[in-house]
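[job 4417] fold queue: 2 targets
>>> target A
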Amino acid sequence: MSLEDAILYRRSVRLFDENKEIDPKIVEKCLQWATLAPNSSNMQLWEFYHITSPEILKELAVCCFGQEAATSAKEMVVFVTRQDLHRKREKEMMKLETINVLKNSPEQKHESRTKRWQLYYGKVMPLLYTRFFGLFGMVRKLITNVVGIFRPTMYEVSEGDMRVVVHKTCALAAQNFMLAMADEKYDTCPMEGFDSRRVKKILNLPFGAEINMIVSCGIRKEGGVWGDRMRVPFREVYHRL
């Protein structure tokens, strides 16, 4: 498909055809495309749980309150945020960017650019992503409010704000995945109605992990799409300045 075709084809399918299977290798390939989504500071604080086990699918369907998009799904993908992995990712990114500097920058810039990335991933990112019952977020807010008096600054630095950043990043990956699935003529339905505690228990996730969304997968059945696509008038949401 062209990009336009894939965007127009993708719908939130509420009922999948139980007689039509999908290839888990293709779903896995689409998840590889998902990893190419843009994400904040390239931290990639996400994980994707590709569910093909009939037993786990049934358990997840119960956690999704028995909605047909879950009970008829051939496979599911659980998109998970992992803000608790920020220190691991910071080290990986610092190493990567150091290699990038040495490989792609003029020699006279090596030291200054390497120090910049060491500051960014060694100091700034740990400062932003560290959580401690909201206290670190309060300190960050205080600092940015003072700095903001003198120059433009980013105010969204509380622990709640950074949680939003991680979830936005994960949602971008989920959108990449759903468009890739549409390109394969596979259907999906992103679900936000679920018991997150039970889902975390089923997947054996650590305390710091959070469920972003569950995407059910299959091939649409007649009646699986609830009517014509509806969007509010474009001119209500489009503003050109």
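>>> target B
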Amino acid sequence: MTPIVWISHRGLNERYAENSLLAFRAAVDAGFTHLETDLRCTRDGHLVLHHDPHMGQTAGYPAAIHTLTLAEFRNARLHDGQSPPLFDEFAEQFDRQSWILDIKPERGAETLKLLHDWALRHGAERWLTRKARFLLWAPDHYPLLASYFPGAVTMADQRECRRAGLSVLCGMSQLGNICRNRTYSIPPRYFGLNLFRRSIIRAYQRHGARVLAFLPESPAEVEQALANGANEVLVNGRAPL
């Protein structure tokens, strides 16, 4: 039986700010081998880790990240006192883990270009293609990613997941364009409907797709996803590794 892939969502934030170096270190110490994070870029061309387009929630600093210089970004403090991290730091400290890189749409083309520049400087184009899977939000970012990192693997995006999910719920999965070896995210519920049912998960897998249980909110939901055949689980907090 293929092992379950456990993915830490923005690091283990029981004690530390999300998308921080200490949160990712805590996730690794807890046994995670796959880390998910969000990539953005500063005004002066540096790759940084942050989910929201601004730092209001994490650091009380409402300016948009793409308008900040690196120095301005680094001078902010996350709620636990850490400096917000650079991608260089993440890549150096967590090079043994597998990654999911969420390329945020604001300045996403520039983010991909900077990631390619980083890979060129480090001779890491093929290494990064093997290391990471990518989540993209804009259709025009797919050809960019393919040109910079031929063979890069992408996760099914929000539009694909919605189409596939609706087709499965309607009992017509053949209309969902569900692709073999592609990973689709399924939340625990949709308008009150339980989506971690065996019939739903198997509907994707009959097309050769993989199913990622997206942010189960309780141990019971985790257990249900596992019992019914989910291939991967993306979690906040700890996992029964």
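[job 4417] complete. Note on B: The mean pLDDT is 96.
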